[in-house]
């Protein structure tokens, strides 16, 4: 992994009106890693993701992506640079088919031959999507929609994939399937930043992780180190 982080946040502050949601967040993601951000509801995890992906503007701090200042870049500019997100709540296009949703993930691309090949790659990762490719996305199960949201993000060919609560509302068997696929995506060269309430599963696949509490990073370390931390086990693993 390169010494220079692919993504670096330094002192990021974000507000909702008069309420400060992020209070000087620092984190790094290096190429080839899976990095998890864990914490309870309201800790600021999704706000951090929105800020990283240009959906919110920080009031203070700096974000570097691929060695350049990306603090004020729009979501579209960040996608063009190589960042894509599978958002919290999946947010597929419900009236569009599976195939049309995947094609929407490649809306900034012009390499039509490679787009077809990448759709095939998504189908290999998620065989259920091939079976459902002509079905309206809104008629699929929650697990299938999560697969589609991830597949749609991959269609942008991201160097950094942001995953926000991929296990939300899913059955345990589907959760394990989703996380196995996240590992597979990472092993084929995509760096992953993962926000997840299921801390046990997230930490088990992460190279490194951060704990966010009320808008501040309070702990960081390898996934194994945080899994072994008494504070993490009591607060997030139900022990």
Percentage beta strand: 25-35%
Order of helices and strands: EEEHEEHEHHHHEHEHEEHH
Helix content: 25-40%
Extended strand count: 10
CATH homologous superfamily of the domain at 7-92 and 158-236, by name? P-loop containing nucleotide triphosphate hydrolases
**The CATH topology of the domain at 7-92 and 158-236 is what?**
Rossmann fold
Q: What structural class do the secondary elements suggest? A: alpha/beta
Mean residue pLDDT: 92
Quickly name the level 1 CATH class of the domain at 7-92 and 158-236: Alpha Beta
CATH-derived architecture of the domain at 7-92 and 158-236 = 3-Layer(aba) Sandwich
Low-pLDDT stretches are none
Through-space gap between termini: 34 Å
- C-alpha geometry: globular
What keyword list fits this structure?
239 residues, alpha/beta, Rossmann fold, six-stranded mixed β-sheet, four-stranded antiparallel β-sheet, 10 strands
Write a concise synopsis of the structure shown.
This protein has helices at residues 45-52, 75-81, 98-105, 112-125, 127-131, 142-154, 172-187, 199-205, 223-228, 230-236, and strands at 7-16, 19-29, 34-38, 60-65, 68-69, 83-86, 160-164, 191-195, 208-213, 216-222. By secondary structure, the protein is an alpha/beta fold. The strands form two sheets. Strands 6-7-8-3-9-10 form a six-stranded mixed sheet, sandwiched between helices. Strands 2-1-4-5 form a four-stranded antiparallel sheet, with helices on one face.
Structure description:
The chain has 239 residues and is an alpha/beta fold. The protein is 38% helix and 26% strand. It contains ten helices and ten strands. The strands form two sheets. A six-stranded mixed beta sheet has the order 6-7-8-3-9-10, with helices on both faces. Strands 2-1-4-5 form a four-stranded antiparallel beta sheet, with helices on one face. Helix 3 packs parallel to helix 6 (142-154). The two termini are 34 Å apart.
